[in-house]
Amino acid sequence: MKKGKLFLAAVLALALSGTGLAAKVFLTIGSGSVTGVYYPVSSGIAKMINTYLAKEGIRANARSTGGSKYNVKAIDQGQLQAALAQNDVIYFAYNGLTETFKNKPIKSIRGIAALYPEFMHILARPGSGIKTIYDMKGKKVYVGDIGSGVEATTKQIFAAAGMSFDDLAQAVHGKVGQAVELLQDGKIDALFYTVGAGSAAMQNATTIAKAYFVPLPLDIIQKLISKFPYYTQVIIPPNTYEGQTVSVPTIGVKATFIIHKDIPADVVYKIAKLLFVDKVDEFKKIHPALGTFFDVKKALDGMTIPIHEGAAKLYEELGIEIPEIAKPVK
To answer: Whole-prediction pTM value?
Structure first.
């Protein structure tokens, strides 16, 4: 038996230990940087599970991680049981595509819902001389944490512009909070970060570091959309951030809530029903990204892998059609 399966079995068997007060199912939910949107959303989900489902033997916590790529691998290895991840990354993982997952598909992940759009934020520091992505040649640029969805998207943006990380003076990796500090100190010139609008990290970048937005050219957006159907053209509305007085054209993906296929269907059903139906108003108050964009009727728009059978049961009860790509599989 694989190590991950042993770990998952242990998680599901906690009720058999010791006092008998332990949870029947304990979910560790992977997120991203603590200054992004994934972490507060994952923490809010875990808090709601503990508040309303603990009496039914279901508990959870949230863990800060390196982001989407890390999360899907960690679910497969049994280090996480659920997570948030970009819809493009989960598609590549499930189907064994891109350099990261080529010939190594991760079939253990299942979808629960597409929660909200994520916007690619491209910011530059004052005095950097950067007006377009092409001005980043020879500059020091933060391109996302190693193995993250941000890094993958940033590579694709550069490729669409006929560039690569080799064109930079330095492609900087690490946590986005550190990147904002480097931007403020003038140690990097620009950063890329995919996140829900209004994230704390991007607020810090525009208020503390006084960074400004670099819009994506329309031709690059069109190239990305034509090649990668998970991307859409989106606009960061004016005044979303301090000093941002105009609309910013960019690309977007969907933040999805995913889970291991072996989590019992009744557990997934109870979690989905709690969040999306019974306490949906509370769920949407977890973060403005949910409050603005989440709608259970659209929760399968942008879902790029099969959903868990427990989630499927809820959507069927609600009369929500499940797209072919998202239909459950064994």
So the answer is: 0.77
Residues 232 and 157 in one domain: yes
Beta carbons within 8 Å of 121's beta carbon, 6+ residues apart = 191, 192, 193, 194, 195, 199, 202, 213, 236, 250
Q: CA quadruple 240, 243, 244, 245: dihedral positive or negative?
A: positive
Percent of the chain with pLDDT over 90: 76
Final residue of a structural domain among 253, 272, 289: 253
- Here the CATH number for the domain that contains residue 56 is 3.40.190.10
Exposed, middle or buried by CB within 10 Å (0-12, 13-18, 19+), for 98?
middle
Question: Tokens at residue 79, please?
Answer: 């280090």
The whole-number average pLDDT for the span 14-26 is 55
Count of alpha carbons within 13 Å of 62, Cβ hemisphere only?
Answer: 22
pLDDT one-digit tens code per residue, 236-286: 989 999 999 999 999 999 999 999 999 999 999 999 999 999 999 999 999
137 and 203 belong to one structural domain: yes
Domain end (from 196, 227, 253): 253
